[in-house]
Every structure is written in C-alpha cells, then in structure tokens.
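If your schedule permits, I should be very grateful for your opinion on a structural question. I have a record of one protein: its chain in single-letter code and its fold written as discrete structure tokens. Would you kindly read the sequence against the tokens and tell me how you understand this chain to fold? Thank you for your consideration; the sequence and its tokens are set out here.


***
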Amino acid sequence: MRKILNGESITLGTCYYPEHWDKSLWREDLERMLSVGIKTVRIAEFAWSKVELTEGNFNFDFFDEFLDLTDEIGMQVIMGTPTATPPAWLSEKYPDVLNARKDGVLFRHGMRRHYNYNSENYRKLSSRIVERFAEHYGKRKSVIGWQIDNEINCEIAEFYSESDDKAFNRFLQNKYKSLDALNDAWGTVFWNQTYTDWNEVHVPRTTIQGVVNPHQTLDYYRFVSDSACSWAEIQADIIRKYKKEDDFITTNGIFGHVDYQRMRDESLDFITYDSYPNFAYTLDGYDPSEDALRDRKWSRHLTETRSISPIFGIMEQQSGANGWNSGMAAPTPRPGQITLWTMQSIAHGADFISYFRWRTATFGTEMYWHGILDYSGRDNRRLKEIADISTKVQKLSAVAGCRYAAKVAVLKDCDNVWDAEYDVWHKSVEEQSQKAIVNASQKTHTPIDFVYLSGYLRRDDASGQVDTELLFETLSQYDLLIYPHMTIVDDRFLPALTKYVENGGKLVIGCRSGYKEITGKCTMEKLPGKLKPLTGCDIPEYTYIAPDAGDVHIKWDDTLFTASVFADQLTVDNRSGSEADCGQNCKVLATYEDDYYKGFGALTANKFGNGEVYYYGSSFNEESVEVFFDKLGVKNPYGEYLELPEELELAVRGDGEDQFAFILNYSKDAKNFIIKGKALDVFKGEDASGMITIPGYGVSVLKLGKNHIESAYA
C-alpha cells in the first residue's frame, strides 16, 4: 500500500536539504520532526553534484549515509530527481543544454531551471543521473516515492534555444506533413509570411513591437507542453524500472504551458502542488481593496490542482516568511495562519502536506524564504503550531480519500487557456470571467470544480480522439456546467457536451464563444459557429462595451444586473428557412437595457433534449454569476444547514452519508456563523449547534452526518 495518499490518513512532511547542514544535525533534525508529527521528508531535488561531482564520476555515499539514518529511525523519504539544477561542468561543457531568451541570448549557470528539454545532451545526461539515482536508491527501505524534477516550467515557461528551434521544426513537420498545410493553418499569406522551405520555420523570434503570428504562437505553446510532458515521461519510465511496487511518482507545482492532465496520464500517480498563500501579503503586491480574496485566492489554485488529481498532495506548504534576496518579500505568517493554509489545502483535497522547509537556509538566493525553524534552529512559535496541526490532522482520518463536493463545474481546455494568453480580445473577457466566477462561488458558498475537457483525450492511441463516455460520466456528476468563453471550438468535445445536455444537464456558455477554429483562425460561419446546434441562437453583431457607455444593464425577468467587457447581440429567429438558422426551442431570456443594442438579446436558452443550453452575451462579473447561480438553482447548496457570512470560506469533502464541512476564516477578526440543527465539531469531538464564533485565522471542521442533518428538522 502507498505510504501517503492511501485513503486512510492525512500525513505531514517537510522539505529537507541534508547537503545544506553539517551531518551532526541530521539525527537531531529528524528526531525533532518525528516528535511534532512530521513523518516524511523530501530530499535531493537540487543535489546533482552530490552524486556526480564531475562528469561520469558517481559517488552515492552522501545520500546512502542519510538514508541509513532515515531507515534506522523510521523517517519516510521522497527522492527528488536532481535535474532542475544541472551542475556547472554540464552547463559549461554543453552550452546546447541552456535555455535562451527570444532574442537568442543564453541563460547562464547561476540560477536554476536554466536548461531546455530538447537538448540531446541534456536528455542523455539527465536520463543518466535519474537512472543512477533510481537504480541505487530505488529499493531503499525509507524511500516511499519520487518527485520528477522540481516545479517544471517555473521561472520561465518559454524556450528559444537552438535545440528548441530544431525540435519545434520537427514537431511541425510531424503535425502538418507539408509546408502547404502549415502555411494554410498559420495564414502566412498575411503580411507575406509564406514559407517555402522547412529551414525557414522557427520558434517565435524577436520582431518589431514583439508581435508574432498568433497561430504560430498557439502551436508553439502546444510544443512547449509536448516537450515538458515527453521529458517527464522519460524520467518516469526510468524510475518505474527500479522503484518498489508501492512507491509513487509525482511532480510538484502548476505552471504555464503544460498539459498536466496529459502529464498525469503518462507519468504521474498524482500531482502535488506548492502552496504559498503568503504571496498575497508581499510588500510590493498587497491588494488593499475590501473585496480582495488575498490568501483565500489560493483556493482557486487548489481547484486547478484538483482538476488534475481529485486527491493530491502539497509538496511545499508555506511555513514562514517568504522572499529571495532579489524580491518577493513578505512577513512571517501570523499565529494561526499556517494552520489556516494547511486546512485550506486539506479542505480542497490534499491528503499529504509537506512544509517548505525545515530549517531556513543561511546562504543563497532563498536565505529569506523561511522554513519552520529560523537560522538558529531553536524551538519557536511556528514549530509549536506544526505540532498542534499534527494533532488536528489525526482527527481528520475519516476525511482521507474523500473527494471535494461540488455540483457546479467550470469547463476549460488547454488550447483556450493558451489562446487567452496572447490574444488580448480573448484575454480581456477570460480574466474577468475566471476571477468573477471564483470570487462569486467563494462569497456565495457555492463550491465549484474545474474540468479540463482536454484531459479526456485518449493517450493510448494515435487517433487523438476523446473518450466521450468517460467525459460524459464526469460531466454528469454536475448540475451546472459553465464554459465562460469557448473561443476555440474543438469538435471532439461536442458529443459529450451534447449528451450531457440531452440527459438533463444545464450548460452555460459565455460571450466570444465559437468564433475560432482549432488553428486559432476566425470562422466564417454564422456565430456562434460550431456551437450553434447547441445554443440555438444567432449573433448578428458584437462589440466591446465602449469606455463611454457607462453601465450597460441586462434585465432577466425582474432582475437587473450589469454586463461586463463585451456584448454579443443575440437574436432568435425560429422561422423555418430563416437565414439566422436558430433552434426551434430557443428563446431570449434577458435583454440589454442600454446603449445602441438596447432590446437585443443578452441571454438565450435553448431547450435541448431534457436539458438546456444558455448563451450569455457578456463576460461574467460577480453580480451576474450570483444571478446565474440563483436562477439556475445551484447557489449555496448547504444553506439549509449552515448560515455563513461571505467572509468565511466553505469547502466540503465527502459525498456519502457523511460530509465534512471546512469553515475557514481568512480575517484576523473573529466571525460568527450559525449551525441550523446539530453537527459534530471534529476537532472538539462534541456536537455543535446555533451561533458559533470562529476566531481570526480560525478553522472549524464539522461532520454533517445523516443523523446530524436529520436532527436539525426533527
């Protein structure tokens, strides 16, 4: 059985760097960890030179000595592959391994993650060190799992080296087969970009005003993800040859231009995230506005993590002040905040929490990124809080393995995520909507999941088709699906969406959907293009909301709310043979009340089988999201059991007879909430009801068992 994420317990760990400390400290440190409930350490992810100090000369004594100690005292170990920091001899001898800026300037040795995934030399040398690590340490008693690299695509998620340039060219030749096909997909006739020889085709390069062909950029981001995934798979395949049967493979962090669902399917048993909510309090990045979520916003990142692995781990959880010597400075967590952030992670599906780090480094770029212990190593307030957390998580064993409970899902796919990065028209609506949906879900206590449609592409054959039945099965778990802006339409996802609606589901699609093809080129079909059979509506005209328009209101029955950013002007002409080609069961539900498009449809509903598809002509804001939640019957699903102010977060794990409600207070001030009936206070081990006061940075975990719920209405 796996030692962590096994459905039986929630466990704690920490990141430890034996190479940073005198060996005389090792035993003391490990025994102190065990005394406060830390049972696992992650090691070695930056320690290539401890095993291969010079090329081809391997010495395993250093980590053997450390693992002898962990074997002896019963500390579990996650081994990191040390490929995130290639040694100086490698960077100097093989400059082709170095990443480069878009203008070709190389990133030199002295930082981390300065390599590229496509250098043949780096693939060979990194594969060799991974093989030597796995072969030598894989059967060690205390080793329970492996972390591939460290924070793949952190620091930089773009690669412009000569190795990447050549690999991108091969990627395109394999995809398009001919230059005619590439020229067509990229629209190279525009601005006379037409290619006549494959040697002319490169990664995006420095241009006037930095403008690059958008279709080339989309393919480039796909290539970066492909490179990262294939590189991780090389390491995973090597580790599998040597690891013990129950040992796991993971990687940590979520960063740009990576299809993590693909990486999971090909290489990982589960994902681990690095959660640093204290970024919300950086001295140069603090948001003082009253409605800012601040550290509560990390629940969005945890939702992203959950979209990869419903039950996941945290490899690096904030435990001290953060900052490099070059920036990112933030204060020490206040009393209770480490507990709050730990429980935030657990509430969203984490069954393993590893704190970064045990001792604070006394040297190097991260000497201000504090761990549990400060430089002296003396006992401190944070260590005491970790010990208290250990006591608390022992009371949460019944939560282990339980999934986050949500009946609303926000749909995504990698192509649209990446398209919104470089296309400002897409970005302007996407950023607004994504932020609004998360904020509104938090403040109305309406739990949401993210579901990546691209996560259901078949990896086991070359057809690239979607596992429609599996995707439909996933979608059917939700009462409401929201795809804020399905700008690029991938035909392969439509059968599952159609089946979901036909079987009674509700699907909301926001503005600017359906107007791009898979290449990123705009369709010449009547909008919303390939989505028209689902939405049933017509969009004869569209516009940004003009800066001088003032508030543009939308009226839905007796409810008035404001539009945001954009206005698709919707019509429904159900007449047979109409040029608009609208669905016979489509109708306008809401209209614009201002500007020249007053009276045009702002929202349509298309009855489709036993369900409905709603097309919303604007970007979402918090106000409109709350209206949709309310009118479509999904708002605040636990409202009959709990009455919570919007300042408190509600997260629920479990979907059987017993559910566990995590109530988290991110404010330094106490807040009150009401339990309607009775619930079991898990930490106190006693029933609770009525008005409850939760202190600043406090967390309450309630068991909403069947008996407790029924007692509320007895």
Q: What stands out?
A: The two ends are 43 Å apart (CA to CA). Residues 674 and 691 are 4 Å apart (CA to CA). The chain has a mean pLDDT of 96.
